[in-house]
Amino acid sequence: MKKILTLLFIVVLTISCTKNDNKIVISGRIEADEINLSFKYPGMIEEINFSEGDFILKDTILAKIKANDIKAQINRSKLEENTVSTALDAKYLQYQSALNRLEQLKIKKQFLNDSINNEILMAENNVKNADHKLKIDKINIQKAMANYEKVKNDYERFKVLYNENAIPKQKFDEIETLHKISKDDLSLAEESLKISEKNYLSAQNSLAISKARKKEIEAIEKEIKAAEKDIGIIKKEIDITSLNKLKTIEVTNELTSHMDDTTIKAPNNLIITRKFFQKGEIIAAGQSLAVGYNPEEIYFRGFIPEPLLGKIKLNMEGELKIDSYPDKSFKGKITFINSRSEFTPKDVQTPQERVKQVFLIKAKIDHNENILKPGMPADFIIKTE
Q: pTM of the full predicted structure?
């Protein structure tokens, strides 16, 4: 845990501000915001990678506490996550298999429906043809029978005449041959009628069988409904398993976050100023492990008297001077001017008393040479013209 605090230097400051004709000199100190390094959880320190005075780069691992329990929980959560993922994959395969089966049943139904309809159509045509043939054969047998009866009567009459020697043998032979032919024609017509009747019955039976096959389609439709129901159940199971997977992922992520909190990383570039614990010691949650500051975020802190307050404004640029390098200056810019004085004035003030009021200012210093350090006395010079 990192907490930003203002470095407090217990020193006696002599507030000094002088004004020349074209510049204001404000005396103060170099300061920096203190960064407090601490853990969110209590535990035994198993790793410390810094000492006081060290310069630490951003994201460097500074310290760790033991987290065997959290590691075990993460392992269990990941195992459960893998188990749920495997179950979810199996459900997806089952779902795809059910979809394929449903598609196959629909194709089978369509194919069977077309096939049965074609069979029924052909059977109906066969019945129609057989009925037509049966009607023709019935007409033919009537003709053959009528012809046979006529020829038979002629034959019997001619036979009497022939026995009485009333007609010649040739004439009798002719009628006898005609009688035989008509009799054979009648036999053929009767046989053809029997075949037509048999074919007609067979065609009707085939039609009935083809129509009865409609029940096969009804059976497939029941299978399709059952397959659709199974798909609905599997989809619900997938939804439940997916939610379980999300829950395990959330638990894993939360535990991983807890695991991250057992490690302290440098939030930015740091210089460690104080270290309070050593490896193997027990540290409480939120207890300060060490403090430091960002050398890139140091600033000047000083006070300006009330009569000169109107001469300065935010973002006004100036130069910083320190005793260690009297010939060197650092560029800076005012970033803060307090709206309240540091000393509480009386209710009624004379012009002489108002001079005693001072206001806090801060200035951001352009500095990348690691020369400036918190606590150093400094002067901030502002040109007014």
A: 0.55
